[in-house]
Design a protein that fits this description.
The chain is α/β, with parallel strands linked by helices. The protein has 15 helices and 13 strands. Helix content is 38%, strand content 15%. The strands form two sheets. An eight-stranded mixed β-sheet has the order 3-2-1-4-5-6-7-8, sandwiched between helices. Strands 10-9-11-12-13 form a five-stranded parallel β-sheet. The structure holds nicotinamide-adenine-dinucleotide (NAD).
């Protein structure tokens, strides 16, 4: 166990698994401004589902909501949210606030590393000066900056923080080497020293923008093929037999990474005098997908149908409701005159009400009489639906709308109709 003291600032989907992993090798202080989150974590409960109770309880990380508790740390790793504003502009409020908290407690020789996804330049041109201002220290002389993008994928048990290759960059070669040693101690995936902090920032934001654009292309051809009466899944199955065809699936692009980060890159482009046509076109297509799906399903329904939507979170088997695009399908169907109920066993009912004004059904027990069932999120519980579940919930001649294609290979009970992208 090294005596190096590391503070992790922001204990969410990214920060908590990182703090727990680092605490196996270093002395770790985990700080979050959310007192309720700290209290829950101290009870061994991680509502994000990323860290299980036993490793959380046995972790030596000192969890706190008091910023002054971070003062013994030499290395600070910032993992706070980087959302967009209502008009899709980068919102650096949490990052700047974290800089102020760190700046007030850090001493000479500190290293401040950012893991939050940003555009190139945020660490050195925005966070550096904010840290100088809060600390009274000089960046590059009294303290140093680093950047290491986070690649974890919520709900993914394979590509975890202790297995993925970690891209690392430091303000000086010595800082970069120190950071490689720290991250190298916790991942079996090794580290990659990026050419500069800006290159590391840029590498992360294009990883997510690239996914967004590729999915947007598949969503656009889905829209074209629906006019021809062709299922995209049938087309993709054939195309995928070519060795260099890229295997992306159509669907709703929600969450706080793929649907958000391209706007960071777009703003950076605009600020530097380039209009990002492809990036913004991808965002526009993907953001229109919920309404497109609602209209396609509506075309299969009688007016005023009773509809049950299965799943509200932004992806399968995670409780994360942020920026879920299922809400666009629900709102679209409601606007078109249908009565929509929503079920999701993983989502927090209070958050669903607060974020989206949706009253989640407490369970599917006793639910019946629906004219349509919409598989919106492929939670295991839904993907494993048997014939009885469909028959119990649905009327004769009802529609099974399978947005995710999760029942595609499944025979449906007689008397039910099927819709897919
Ligand atoms: N979730 C992912 O899978 C993922 C993957 C890669 C990168 N990222 C990026 O990592 C960053 C964090 O994302 P996340 O999903 O962990 O967010 P999150 O919302 O789950 O967690 C952020 C935590 O930071 C806390 N926080 C907010 N402001 C703070 C402050 N000023 N000081 C201390 N704590 C503060 C919040 O209370 C919250 O607990 C974002 O930039 C995101 O884009 C996320």
């Amino acid at each position: 166990m090294s005596s190096l003291k590391i503070a992790v600032v922001g204990l969410g989907y990214v920060g908590l698994p990182l703090a727990v992993a680092l605490a196996r090798k270093f002395e770790v202080i985990g700080f979050d401004i959310d007192q309720r989150r700290i209290a829950e974590l101290k009870q061994g409960h991680d509502r994000t589902g990323e860290v299980e109770q036993a490793p959380l309880r046995s972790s030596t990380a000192h969890l706190t909501a008091k910023p002054e508790d971070m003062s013994p740390a030499k290395v600070f790793i910032v993992t706070v949210p980087t959302p967009v504003t209502q008009d899709n502009k980068p919102d650096l409020g949490a990052v700047l606030s974290a800089c102020r908290s760190v700046g007030k407690v850090m001493g000479k020789g500190s290293i401040v590393v950012f893991e939050s996804t940003v555009y190139p330049g945020v660490t050195e041109d925005i966070c550096g000066p904010e840290l100088e201002h809060a600390s009274g220290l000089v960046c590059g002389r009294d303290f140093f900056l680093g950047y290491s993008p986070e690649r974890i994928n919520p709900g993914d048990r394979e590509h975890t923080v202790d297995r993925i290759t970690k891209v690392v960059a430091g303000q000086t070669p010595d800082v970069a080497r120190q950071l490689c040693d720290i991250y190298g101690a916790i991942t079996t995936g090794g580290t990659f020293m990026a050419a500069s902090i800006k290159a590391a920032e840029a590498s992360k934001v294009i990883e997510n923008a690239q996914r967004d654009i590729n999915i947007a292309f598949i969503n656009e051809v889905t829209m074209i093929f629906s006019k021809l009466g062709l299922s995209i899944h049938d087309v993709l199955e054939a195309s995928a037999t070519k060795w260099n065809f890229l295997k992306f699936q159509p669907g709703l692009v929600g969450g706080h990474c793929i649907g958000v980060d391209p706007f960071y890159l777009a703003q950076c482009a605009i600020d530097n005098g380039h209009h990002p046509d492809v990036i913004l076109a991808g965002r526009k297509i993907n953001d229109s997908m919920g309404r497109f799906v609602a209209e396609q399903i509506n075309a299969q329904l009688r007016p005023g149908s009773k509809v049950l939507v299965l799943g509200l979170t932004f992806k399968e088997d995670v409780p994360d409701l942020r920026n879920s695009k299922v809400i666009d399908v629900i709102a679209g169907l409601r606007d078109l005159g249908h009565a929509v109920d929503v079920h999701d066993p993983l989502a927090d009912p209070e958050e669903a009400r607060h974020e989206y004004g949706i009253a989640l059904m407490p369970s599917l027990e006793g639910a019946s009489g629906y004219h349509a069932l919409i598989g919106a999120v492929a939670h295991d519980a839904y993907a494993n639906f048997g014939p009885d579940s469909f028959l119990r919930l649905l009327e004769e001649d009802a529609l099974v709308a399978d947005i995710k294609g999760m029942w595609r290979k499944r025979d449906l009970p007689d008397g039910l109709r099927r819709w897919m992208l």
